[in-house]
């Protein structure tokens, strides 16, 4: 089948290759460096730091210095142009929003949130290389499969409420990658076990491999 989708920028390509965007959200970002080390060691190389976490901008800058080349660090929960500028200034390589209309005119790839076919297509038409399907927990992979029938040119990033055991189903249904927060990170960003995090990360990476094999 001919692929009618536009070529991707390097950052978005890296996210698709990873298959997973790990979403770091906690009251404070103090543990994000340790969490990110575990994730990258497991093979997860796309990390989103949510701006609702205190110290998020410093964490983005620190992770850019800390993590190996090939890891992409972005900002999530970007809600205003000021948020976007601050995140880019801190070194964010991509921006993610839960809504549709806050990310225009940025110098890095932007992934707006959408839920309905109309919103998904509007985000794509506005130039989003990936469209965040959010919140995906109330939907199913069948919804994504049906959505991609008339919109095969749109690369979709389901996020929100996706469990580790759901990863393969979403990718098989046509997701470009999936965003994983709580089900992957658990309590690791608030003092929980990094060993347990490593096991969950391996489970997630294995699910991507299985879906794409």
Automatic annotation (TrEMBL):
CDD domains: KDPG_aldolase. GO terms for molecular function: (4S)-4-hydroxy-2-oxoglutarate aldolase activity; 2-dehydro-3-deoxy-phosphogluconate aldolase activity. Pfam families: Aldolase (PF01081). It is an enzyme of class 4 (lyase). Belongs to the KHG/KDPG aldolase family. InterPro entries: Aldlse_KDPG_KHG, Aldolase_TIM. Homotrimer. It comes from Actinoplanes octamycinicus. Pathway: Carbohydrate acid metabolism. PANTHER family: 2-DEHYDRO-3-DEOXY-6-PHOSPHOGALACTONATE ALDOLASE-RELATED, 2-KETO-3-DEOXY-6-PHOSPHOGLUCONATE ALDOLASE. Keywords: Carbohydrate metabolism, Lyase. Its EC number is 4.1.2.14, 4.1.3.42. This is 2-dehydro-3-deoxyphosphogluconate aldolase/(4S)-4-hydroxy-2-oxoglutarate aldolase.
């Amino acid at each position: 089948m001919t692929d009618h989708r536009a070529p991707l920028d390097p950052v978005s390509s890296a996210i698709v290759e990873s298959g997973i965007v790990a979403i770091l959200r906690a009251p404070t970002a103090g543990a994000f460096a340790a969490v990110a080390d575990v994730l990258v060691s497991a093979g997860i190389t796309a990390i989103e730091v949510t701006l609702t976490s205190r110290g998020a901008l410093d964490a983005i800058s620190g992770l850019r210095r800390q993590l190996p080349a090939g890891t992409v660090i972005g900002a999530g929960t970007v809600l205003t142009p000021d948020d976007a500028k601050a995140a880019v200034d801190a070194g964010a390589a991509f921006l993610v929003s839960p809504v549709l209309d806050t990310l225009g005119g940025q110098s890095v790839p932007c992934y707006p949130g959408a839920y309905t076919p109309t919103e998904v297509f509007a985000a794509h038409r506005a130039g989003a290389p990936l469209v965040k399907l959010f919140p995906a927990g109330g939907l199913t992979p069948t919804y994504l499969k049906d959505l991609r029938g008339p919109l095969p040119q749109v690369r979709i990033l389901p996020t929100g409420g996706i469990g580790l055991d759901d990863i393969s189903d979403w990718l098989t249904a046509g997701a470009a990658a999936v965003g994983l927060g709580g089900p992957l990170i658990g309590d690791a960003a608030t003092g929980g076990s990094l060993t347990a995090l490593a096991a969950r990360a391996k489970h997630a990476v294995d699910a991507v491999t299985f879906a794409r094999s």
